[in-house]
Amino acid sequence: MLLSHPPVKSARSPSSGADAAKAPQKGRQTKSAIVDAALGLATQIGLEGLSIGAVADLMHMSKSGVFAHFGSREELQISVVREYHVRFEEEVFLPVLQQPRGLPRLQAMFHNWMHRTSVEIDSGCIYISGAVEFDDRSGPVRDALADSVRAWLAAMTRAVVQAKEAGHLHPDADEHQMAFEIHGLILALHYEARFLRTPGSIARANTGFAHILARYGNPGALLPAAQAAPPPPSSPSSFPPV
Fold first, then answer.
1. Which of 1, 19, 118, 170 is 20 to 30 Å from 216 at the Cα level?
2. What CATH number does the domain located at 82-216 have?
3. How far apart, in whole angstroms, are the C-alpha atoms of residue 70 and residue 77?
4. Predicted confidence (pLDDT) per residue in 162-184, tens digit
5. Spatial distance between the Cα atoms of 95 and 240, rounded to a whole number of angstroms
6. Model-level pTM greater than 0.85?
7. What residues have CB less than 8 Å from 48, skipping those under 6 apart?
8. How far apart are CA 178 and CA 169, in angstroms?
């Protein structure tokens, strides 16, 4: 007679299955918290100052615990750059999509950029400090920084082109030159306000933007009314078309 085997109980209880399902989510939350702490640290000491050990101390974690989420210091730095890009996009770029295309959108973009810059006078800008640290170096961290800045400048240049197409700027306005000058205002503002502590730097930057619009603007253009922008939505990984 064949012996029938009793049913074998699984060593994995229902609760263990639920715990396993929660593990990836917990891991993502921990990694997000590490990146958030690392970004805050990087704005103060720069990307080059970041280390697995420094972030582990800040998070009250072991070095191996932090390392397990990134695998290298370089990947930690890149994750910080990407997170900064997402936040910049959410605060500066995405809200302007509620504005009409043309000069109102370009003005809103500069206004949002100025607002973020006024905060970063105290905390620091990863784009600017990172450019100083990595301008003469090659590698994935520099590439991540450069790609983020190029994406933002391309979005601003598109806004200038649309303002020209809407008749708000002179037909022969050079969009690349205008975007270059606007970018230059922000760089000068950081240098004057953060490094030299020059009083009135923000007002001068705003005056500089007004002068740029006066040079390139079409005085006879009828501008659509600007709209109040709602809170920014969740951000994709790169700037969408404006």
1. 118
2. 1.10.357.10
3. 9
4. 999 999 999 999 999 999 999 99
5. 12
6. no
7. 133
8. 11
